[in-house]
Amino acid sequence: MTDTRDRLLDAAADLFYREGVNVGVEALTKAAGVSKRSMYQLFGSKDDVLAASLERVAPGYSATLLPEGSAGTPRERILHVFRVVEEVAPQPGFYGCPFLATSVEIKAADHPARAVARRFKDGLTEFFRREAAAGGAVDPGQVAQQLVMTFDGASAWGVMHGDGVNGQAVRMAELLLDAAGVTPDREPGAGQ
């Protein structure tokens, strides 16, 4: 059953990202090569499959987005995230942040996939808050929220325009960090 579950979640992650959350159960099970019966034995509903597929992609997405280890200044570590967006946005097959895309499509606040998306965004916000605090930000919580909004806006812009974000994501993040007092030469924890 593990192989069936893996195939189903891999197919779901791919289909929901490329085509949106309204992909039908028939198309989903066909792409996964599993029966509807098997899907419903593993998951109570398509909504549960969607939520589980987001949970499945979250670690890989984080690994791609966040800097490895602890090298670099807090500012460099934050800007790394925006450089990744700059790099991937113009590539074919870029459909934005999967967590944002799912949340925009699903209107019900209590949907299980929205809960997964919120947890991911809360984690990204916490990464930004922690790095901003280490970099001496005046209000790390506020700049963290602003950085996530900038990230989401850059992701949406890249999808809407289809040709990248042309350096603007990094530039906007730099402006926010400048305003918050997270300077390029500030070492982690300096002045605290």
Automatic annotation (TrEMBL):
Residues 24-43 bind DNA. Residues 2-61 form the HTH tetR-type domain. Pfam families: TetR_N. The keyword Transcription applies. InterPro entries: Homeodomain-like_sf, HTH_TetR, Tet_transcr_reg_TetR-rel_C_sf. SUPFAM superfamilies: Homeodomain-like, Tetracyclin repressor-like, C-terminal domain. Coiled coil: none annotated. Keywords: DNA-binding, Transcription, Transcription regulation. The keyword DNA-binding applies. This is TetR/AcrR family transcriptional regulator. It comes from Paractinoplanes hotanensis.
